[in-house]
Amino acid sequence: MAPSFLSVVSLFAAYIRHCFKAAGLASRTLSVDAQTTMHFWAPIHQSAHKPSVVLIHGFGLEAIWQWRRQVQILAPLFNVYVPDLLFFGGSTTNSSERSEVFQAACVGKLLDLLDLERFHVVGTSYGGMVAYNLAQMLGKERVQKVVIASSGVNMTKTDNADLLQRAQFDHIHQLLLPATPQHLRKLLSLTVHRPPKILPNFLLGDFLDKLYAENRKEKMELLKGLTIGRDSTSNISPLEQEVLIIWGEEDGIFPVQLARELKRVISEKARLELIKEASHVPQIEKAGEFNNILLNFLKG
Ligand SMILES: *[C@@H]1O[C@H](CO)[C@@H](O)[C@H](O)[C@H]1NC(C)=O
Ligand SMILES: *[C@@H]1O[C@H](CO)[C@@H](O)[C@H](O)[C@H]1NC(C)=O
């Protein structure tokens, strides 16, 4: 492993943390129960006049890598909370539970501790499944609006098999928990519409060392512990909240068809917004467009 001062990834991580701080957020850690500790970013000064919004990251990198471009825009208007899900960033548990429902329950406990009475929730990919469960669990009294981005909440076993076929892998962890530069290249080709042309192996290796090596065993268990996508039919129940679905038209992980199906089942008046020339991470690739859609919905 390269020492931190030589690591492009560590330098960039320091820059992102600086961006979070500049937006008025602070890094904190709390025990949410006897077995579970969560790391999160929260406003240094919580404002009683602002609504609150919780951003839930996807599988892969810890929260700060996924929401940098949103935090800067949202923080002046909302109290912004950005938790790291269990086994990402500094969050961990001694519990043996690994499902997305458990992740949602832990985020719920954290928000209880923070006395967050009402809030909007935004989740991407795996985090969208967590957001969906949080909204179900707490109901519309507490969770106001729900944004599901790039997240196959309605996916089935067949969608999983299709994804493996597109990636030409046997196991989902080879794709979602890459251990070699070659696997990481594959993941990038499916998640980013226009991956950078020049990606030297040393840089990819740096990413693998710094960001994918930690808690590998537990992250594998999270993938196995997912309750979504296990059966041949999906029967999710509709949400009571107002729902916005945002998706990249070229999503290589969850094809856009899943967004259309999700819109039909998640809520009668769910809004669906597609972003052109974006794949699985429109909040990064097309941050401006993503933010406009998001703000429009949250403020409207
Ligand atoms: C898990 O258990 C160990 C040993 O009892 C303890 O030191 C650690 O703080 C626990 N972790 C969490 C997240 O509670
Ligand atoms: C999503 O749910 C709807 C309604 O339950 C169903 O008709 C559709 O086939 C589901 N999509 C998938 C991919 O399972």
TrEMBL record:
Pfam families: Abhydrolase_1
UniProt xrefs under SUPFAM superfamilies: alpha/beta-Hydrolases
InterPro entries for this protein: AB_hydrolase_1, AB_hydrolase_fold, Meta-cleavage_hydrolase
UniProt domain AB hydrolase-1: residue ranges: 51-287
Name by which UniProt lists this protein: AB hydrolase-1 domain-containing protein
Organism: Flemingia macrophylla
Lineage: Eukaryota, Viridiplantae, Streptophyta, Embryophyta, Tracheophyta
